[in-house]
Amino acid sequence: MQIDRHIISENATLSEALRMLNDLSGGVMTLIAVNDGNRMTGTLTDGDVRRALLSGIGLDAPVASAMFRRFHALKEDCIDPAEVRAIRRRGIRLIPVLDNEGRVVRMIDTCLTRTVLPVRAVLMAGGKGERLRPMTLTTPKPLLEIGGKAIIDYNIEALAAVGVNDISVTVNYLAEQLEEHFATPVAGVCVKCVRETKALGTIGSVALVDLPEEGETIVMNSDLLTTVSFEDLYLRHTSEQADVTIAVVSYNVTVPYAILATEGERVLSLEEKPSYSYYANAGIYLFSNRLLRRLDRESRMDAPDLIGQAIAEGLKVTYYPINGTWIDIGSPADFAHARELMAHVRQTR
C-alpha cells in the first residue's frame, strides 16, 4: 500500500482533501491527517467532509476542522491481534501503525491483510507423495496444481493474509523444483527454502530453520487445502497460554452392527449401528519456539512424538477445531475431490 497517497497535512484545505479522496476511488477512501511533525492527529473520510460542509464549514477550512480525532491506531512494537480483530469488527478498513513518536510507518488494509500475527511459519514439503504416483514422479506433491494454482501456494497466500511474512519451506524430494518455484515471491512473501540432507520425519526438519528463543511458530503440512482460521488458532493458543495447539478436524465412525454393552457375562443393552465422533490431527500446529528449538538437526522426529514428549513433561497442549474446509491431499481420490471443490468455488464466484 502506498502510504503517501493517504497522508495529508491537518493544515491542508478540505478542497485539497476532496481531491485526494477522489484519487482513492475504488480503494480505501480514508486520509490520515498529520501535524507539522508528521505525527498522526486524525482521520478524514468523505463522510467527515460532508458533515463539515453541512455544518457550515467551507472548503477553504483546514482538514483539522473536520477530521475525526478519536481514531484507532496500532503501535509498531506491540501489535495485538485481538486489538486488530476488535478494530476490524467495528467496520474500520484502514488501520495505521505508528512508531513511538506517533508517526505512520505502515497501514493495514484489513480487506487484504485481516490481521498481523506475530508468528513465523514452517511448511513441510519434503515428502515423496508416493500415493499420488505417477503424478509425483516428476513433480513434488506441493506443486501439483488445483484450480490453476500449486497446492502449497494456497497455504502461503492464507498465511500472508494474516500478516505472516517470515515463511520457510523444508524441502527434500525434487527440492530444486520447489526452490525454483519460490525464487519468485508468492503473495508478496519471499519464501525461504531449507533443504533436508536426509529424511527427518514429519517435524524434524524444523530444526534446520533458525528460530528465536521466544515466540511461536506455525508448523503445517504443505499439501493441505484448508480454510483454517490462523487468527482463531493463534488467539486460542495465546488465551490458553499453551505450549502447543493442535488444529483438529471432526472424524466420525459408524459401526455397521449392533454393539453390545456388557458386564461380565451379562448383556446390559444393544445399540444399533452407533456412531462415534473423534478429533483427528489436521497436520497444523502452533508451537512455542522453546519447544521447537529442542529438535536435533541430525535426528528424525515425528510431530506426534514431539507432542507426546511435551505432554509427558507437563507442558500445556491444547486443540483448536477447524470450522471449514480441510482436505489432506494424500490419495488420487483426495486430489480429485479437491479439484472438484475448487471448480465449484470458481463457478459460484
TrEMBL record:
Residue stretches making up the CBS domain: 1-59
Pfam families: CBS, NTP_transferase
Residues annotated as signal peptide: none
Record PROSITE patterns: CBS
UniProt keyword list: CBS domain
Descriptive protein name: CBS domain-containing protein
